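Protein S100
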Amino acid sequence: MSKAAPTETERCIESLLAVFQRYAGREGDSCTLSKREFLAFMNTELASFTKNQKDPAVLDRMMKKLDLNSDGKLDFPEFLNLIGGIAVACHEALVVQAPPR
Ligand SMILES: [Ca+2]
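Structure:
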């Protein structure tokens, strides 16, 4: 079977999986982000967001909100809600910035 070059969308999905696995694999269960892994992810991958947060409890609250089954860890679907939420916020910001027609 010939392997076509991945599309932009496929590469985005692969990147999300790879990033999740890289951080989730640091300690404990390699299929979930612990609180420490979540903080490492946020402070490295989304540093532009976290460096503007004066209140350290913001990340605590984010983790609690994202942890839908309240097991203290983020699985991949829970992680995707974070990415999806940020993507929606970026999209809304773009729409707001767009000049009126
Ligand atoms: Ca969870």
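Residues 67, 69, 71, 73-75, 78 surround calcium ion (CB under 6 Å).
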